[in-house]
Amino acid sequence: MKRGLLAEFETPEAMLRAVTELRSRGYRRLDAFTPYPVHGAEAALGLRRSPLNWIVLPFALAGAAGGYLVQWYNNAYDYPLNVGGRPQHAAPAFVPITFEMMVLTAALMGFVVLLFLTRLPELWNPVFDVPGFERASIDRFWVGIDARDPALIRPIAERDLTDLGAITVAWAGRERS
C-alpha cells in the first residue's frame, strides 16, 4: 500500500471486526499492520495461500538433479575408481549429497523469490510518515484501505472507520487530485 486511508485500533479483536465489516461493505484492497501475527487476519483480509512453495519446487528439483548429475559424472563417467568392487554408479551413495543440494538450492532460491514477491527491500513507504504509525511494531493495530480500491470514497470510509472504533484515521501518501 503506497497511498490510502489508515486507521489505528487498540486491540487485535477490534481490528479483525473492522476488517470483516469493511469487507462486507465492499472494500477489497485492505491491509493490516500488526506488532505480532494475529490469528484469523489472513482469512479476514481474504488473502490466498502464498505461491512461494510452487515457485521454489522446480528450483529444488533442479538442485537435486544437478547434485546427482555432478556425482554421477565424476564417479561413473569422468574419473571412475574401482574401490572394493563397488559399482561405478552406486545410487544409494549419492542420496545424501543429492538431498543437501536440493535443500540448499530451495533455501537460496526461496529467499530470492520471497524478496522479489514482497518487493523488498523497501527502505521507505508513505505509511511511515503517518503520525503514530511507528506503534504498529509495538502495541497498535492498523488497517489500511488502498487508494486504488474502487469502493474507497474518503469521507464515507473515514466515517465507517470511526464508527468501527478507530482511534485515529489518517491519509498516507500524496492526496488524490
Strand content: 5-15%
Number of strands: 4
Oligomer: single chain
Biggest sheet details: 4 strands, antiparallel
Describe the protein's architecture and organization.
- The protein is an alpha+beta fold.
- It is 46% helix and 12% strand.
- It is built from five helices and four strands.
- The protein has helices at 12-24, 41-45, 52-78, 91-117, 154-163; strands at 4-9, 30-33, 141-146, 168-172.
- It has a four-stranded antiparallel sheet with strand order 2-3-1-4, covered by helices on one side.
- The radius of gyration is 25 Å and the shape is rod-shaped.
- The relative contact order is 0.29.
Give structural attributes.
4-stranded antiparallel β-sheet; 177 residues; alpha+beta; 5 helices; 4 strands
Topology:
Elements: E1 4-9, H1 12-24, E2 30-33, H2 41-45, H3 52-78, H4 91-117, E3 141-146, H5 154-163, E4 168-172
Antiparallel strand pairs: 1-3, 1-4, 2-3
Helix pairs in contact: 3-4
Provide a concise account of the structure shown.
By secondary structure, this protein is an alpha+beta fold.
